[in-house]
Amino acid sequence: MKPTLFILAAGMGSRYGGLKQLDGLGPNGETIMDYSVYDALRAGFGKIVFVIRKDFEKDFREKIISRYEGHVPVEVVFQSIDALPDGFEAAPERTKPWGTGQAVLMGKDVINEPFAVINADDYYGAESFRILADALKEMEGKKNEYCMVGFNIENTLSENGGVSRGLCTVDKDGFLTDVTECHGIERKDDEIIQIKDGEEVPFPKNANVSMNLWGFTPDYFGYSEKAFIDFLTEHSKELKSEFYIPTVVNNLIKDGTIRLRVIPTPSKWFGVTYAADRPATVEMFRRLTDEGAYPSPLF
Q1: R_g of the chain computed on alpha carbons
Q2: If I label 6, which of 129, 139, 245, 290 is the partner at 20 to 30 A Cα–Cα?
Q3: How many helices (H) and strands (E) does the chain have?
């Protein structure tokens, strides 16, 4: 069975200033998601699942999903503030859903095979999808054995401001022992720094970081659902607390339930964290197309 690509596309894009998931950046108006789908299909993925917000479903189907008709089966699921387990309610004043951990849970009824989780607004590179597809095919029929594609921090920085990355600690056998969310990471005076407790501190050079490029088997949903209940028991009435994928992963690693292999990729990330990132991203897709890495149009 071919693995599934699960694309997290429900974010609001607050720093970017709009719905960057729908922004046409390629030579023929292709979105970053289009390139991810194209690379995934070449790597051997067999189905695409998008998690979006219900309020932009119409535009999403017209501008995005219509491109894939005849190429690959597609499912759409929805993330919302009130998509909660029985017995829980969000505070009436809450305005945002519950983070990437909740977003992944929205796929539990439509995914029954090994699957990758990616961000909609990140370009990961064709090699990253080949690496992940090979790993997921090896994971078929297994449980408690997950993976992640890790990036060199040097290949993931924006020229236009600080970024958030998951700093990975890996043991001698290549398995994740911890992933720590770090913020405000940028290059400054030939060094890489991060903002920690309001102060600028060094960030490790050549560190292995997570870009939300995960590989799971369907048993992950059960673990994540239990962890979400535990999270809501403590945080359901808070207005901004979010439930993240690394929260689930870290806890499962620490209690010995799972192992998660970190597979390095040579690929260079680019994307549109900030509106000012857009011109460089447009130019990169034009160059890749001119070099023959992608056809034009993609689909």
Answers
A1: 18
A2: 290
A3: 7, 13
